[in-house]
């Protein structure tokens, strides 16, 4: 007759049943064995879901900030271009273009977006070549972020408005038509600057011919 010696060792440990699964195995040879396995079915999916939700919420917040600043910056510069085109000789236009407030406001927006878009890889993308010079592929990767793209747009708005102001003031000083050049500066700033130089050269040439004919 087979004698069975049953020995039991009981260890009392505080276990969280929500994190550990008990699996009981019994055999004639080995007796009873209890195996403990982490319960990853419910909690892990919950953690993953929370992390995914957090990342998604963060992405949405970042996208909304970029879109909002993009809209605010674009809207902010339009009144100044409108004044320079519609009423270039009005006193309110002259005073508006002498003010530095639009550049300070846009500069603050740009600095804010630059801060939000800055990552440890930004320098790597900007100076990706072995000679520490920018490369098109690296710049393309850097501008794949909406936040970085929005900051670049604000950067362009500031530069374009500043160039338009220079064109406008030069036109007032030399009595040159600048409305077409200022309009081009809003969308195609380098073309607007070229347009102003061409207009200035043609105006000076026409003035010189008129003076010679009068003599």
TrEMBL record:
<dbReference type="Pfam" id="PF14108">
    <property type="entry name" value="ABA4-like"/>
</dbReference>
<dbReference type="InterPro" id="IPR025461">
    <property type="entry name" value="ABA4-like"/>
</dbReference>
<feature type="transmembrane region" description="Helical">
    <location>
        <begin position="100"/>
        <end position="118"/>
    </location>
</feature>
<feature type="transmembrane region" description="Helical">
    <location>
        <begin position="65"/>
        <end position="88"/>
    </location>
</feature>
<keyword id="KW-0472">Membrane</keyword>
<keyword id="KW-1133">Transmembrane helix</keyword>
<protein>
    <recommendedName>
        <fullName>Neoxanthin synthase</fullName>
    </recommendedName>
</protein>
<keyword id="KW-0812">Transmembrane</keyword>
């Amino acid at each position: 007759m087979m004698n069975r010696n049953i020995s039991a060792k009981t260890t009392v440990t505080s276990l969280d049943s929500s994190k550990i699964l008990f699996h009981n195995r019994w055999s004639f040879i080995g007796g009873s064995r209890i195996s403990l396995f982490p319960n990853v079915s419910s909690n892990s999916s919950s953690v993953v879901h929370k992390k995914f939700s957090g990342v998604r919420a963060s992405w949405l917040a970042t996208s909304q900030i970029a879109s909002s600043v993009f809209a605010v910056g674009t809207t902010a510069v339009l009144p100044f271009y409108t004044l320079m085109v519609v009423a270039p000789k009005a006193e309110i236009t002259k005073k508006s273009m002498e003010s530095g407030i639009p550049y300070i406001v846009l500069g603050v927006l740009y600095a804010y977006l630059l801060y939000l878009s800055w990552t440890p890889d930004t320098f790597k993308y900007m100076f990706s070549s072995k000679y520490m010079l920018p490369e098109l592929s690296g710049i393309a990767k850097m501008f794949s972020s909406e936040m970085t793209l929005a900051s670049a747009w604000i950067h362009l708005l500031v530069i374009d408005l500043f160039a338009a102001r220079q064109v406008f003031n030069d036109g007032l000083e030399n009595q040159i038509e600048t409305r077409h050049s200022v309009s081009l500066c809003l969308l195609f700033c380098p073309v607007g600057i070229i347009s102003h130089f061409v207009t200035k050269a043609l105006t000076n040439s026409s003035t010189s011919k008129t003076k010679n004919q009068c003599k």
